[in-house]
Amino acid sequence: MRSDGIAEKAVDELSGSGIVRVAALKGISRFLEHLELLQVRIPCDPESLCGGESPLSQQLIRGGIRLGNRIAIHPMEGWDGAADGNPTERTLRRWRRFGASGAKLIWGGEAVAVSHDGRANPNQLLAAAHTRAGLDQLRSTLIQEHRRTAGSTDGLMVGLQLTHSGRFCRPNLSDRAEPRIAYHHPILDRRQGLPPEYPVLTDGEIGGIVENFHRAAVMAWELGFDFVDIKHCHGYLAHEILSAHTREGRYGGSFENRTRFLREIVEGIRSAAPGLRIGVRLSAFDAVPFRADPERSLQGKAGPGIPEIDSSLVPYRWGFGVDPHNPLEPDLRETVLFLSLLEKLDIKLVNLSAGSPYYCPHIQRPAFFPPSDGYAPPEDPLVGVARQMKAVRELKHQFPSLIVVGSGYSYLQDFLPQVAQAAVREQWVDIVGLGRMALSYPELLRDVLEGRGMARNLICRTFSDCTTAPRNNLPSGCYPLDRYYKESELGARLQNVKRRIRGGAAQVEEAG
Ligand SMILES: Cc1cc2nc3c(=O)[nH]c(=O)nc-3n(C[C@H](O)[C@H](O)[C@H](O)COP(=O)(O)O)c2cc1C
Ligand code: SF4
Questions:
Q1: Which residues pair with 126 in a beta bridge?
Q2: What's the whole-model pTM score?
């Protein structure tokens, strides 16, 4: 592996020796110097503006949509629904906090499965007749809290993210994967232990999933959600179908076939729920799967990520938005075609993300500390932030009629407000989305805009516990900074899990 040309080049290019923590960069000039050293371009204003002066407070009116400001909350699943797919008190708390953030675009709340078998974990929310009242309560709780804290719901849009987890389904037991795959992937199949005869979803089964999306969207419409997101990101089913180059039949091969799933879902929603808006969250580019370098994993600490690829897999035929001849690089040509298709389908709302948390988390959610199943950052995470911002900028420039939301901002930490403000002002993006920061400190941008300044002790430092917890069968939340988790028995349980992982890894080291 290491002797292979592609992997070696990637290790040379990506190995992040001596990554400087953002919290150690005292002041904006140090931050700017650091960006220069990294040779990455991230727009950043010298100071944060308050109130109406800030570009983040400006309303956005486009294509018949009006949003009260330029802030979105990304969908953030909590692995804390009931076994039957209904929300729990914890789920309600999270949505309430999203409502209090002041953001005028709530992009989907969290991924909600369109069928039981499509759930990513046994605690994922489900859109079904018996969860109708629960989903209604989530929406109304969020709106009520938004009204209470922001004073009005004017310009607020609340969506519901609909999903089928495809390859990453675990509907029944947290330790039993039940993948529903669109095609055989040479690396992910090996990782997941799927033999060549493992069944691929038939065209008929995919048609059935399309109908589940219709049914779920109609329910969202009846409940008063402003839009549904047809989730096309992070390696889940719709995203996997976009990269089904090797699949035969109606949903694989040509671009036309690989986008049939989306077109059929949209067509059905348009006829069954004619007033409902549609959005799409898309991994604008992907990467090959990464893993911790075993040669540099020491004493319970995962080594830096290296790509798990060799030259026999090039040209790479298992990615969307990936250069087949250099699969470590994005290639946005098909992404552009996809956004053109969205325009044709009269879809105005687009939320751009990248990669997958399962096989290339550093691409999707740049972090200093890896989750328990991850790897140490193979690059300065600011490079990852800049990569997403650059792709969004290029795409937004080509599609001025779309409303484009950007992702991956949480790693900016103390500098998030100035970067977000500059990115909107310089038209790199229309709306800045908050993911992890919305778990640790949902009101960050509201505090800044209302002149209170930031509560530094709540700033997400990308400890990744919100990913480590669900990987170990605990609900997701900000364990280090949110007292609700930190001081509960959940916090103690996560500490035990982490101790066990460290101990186990140290024992392996000793034995080795
Ligand atoms: C715990 C956790 C749960 C997530 N759940 C979802 C989800 O349900 N749907 C989705 O599209 N993205 C999900 N994401 C990805 C985030 O929406 C976001 O894209 C990512 O965290 C990067 O943005 P950030 O840098 O602001 O965190 C999740 C991320 C985390 C950390
Ligand atoms: S656990 Fe908290 S601090 Fe860590 S990445 Fe998640 S939100 Fe950020």
A1: 113
A2: 0.95
Closest C-alpha to ligand 1, atom 10: 75
What distance in Å separates the CA atoms of residue 180 and residue 320, rounded to the nearest whole number?
Answer: 19
Q: What percent of the chain has pLDDT over 70?
A: 95
Q: Pocket of ligand 1, candidates 164, 434, 436: which has the most ligand atoms within 8 Å of its Cβ, to mutate?
A: 436
What separation in Å is there between the alpha carbon of 204 and the centre of ligand 1?
Answer: 31
> Over the stretch 37-73, which tens digit does the pLDDT of each residue have?
999 999 999 999 999 999 999 999 999 999 999 999 9
* Atom number, ligand 1, closest to the C-alpha of residue 74: 17
- What 3-state DSSP class applies to 479? coil
3-state helix, strand, coil in the chain (%, to 5): 45, 10, 45
For every residue of 186-252, which 3-state class applies, written as one string? CCHHHHHCCCCCCCECCHHHHHHHHHHHHHHHHHHHHHCCCEEEECECCCCHHHHHHCCCCCCCCCC
- Specify the long-range contacts of residues 485-494, CB closer than 8 Å, at least 24 apart: 494/465, 494/468, 494/469
Question: How confident is the model over 389-446, as pLDDT tens digits?
Answer: 999 999 999 999 999 999 999 999 999 999 999 999 999 999 999 999 999 999 999 9
| Alpha-carbon torsion (39, 40, 41, 45), positive or negative | negative
**Residue 512 pLDDT greater than 70, yes or no:** no
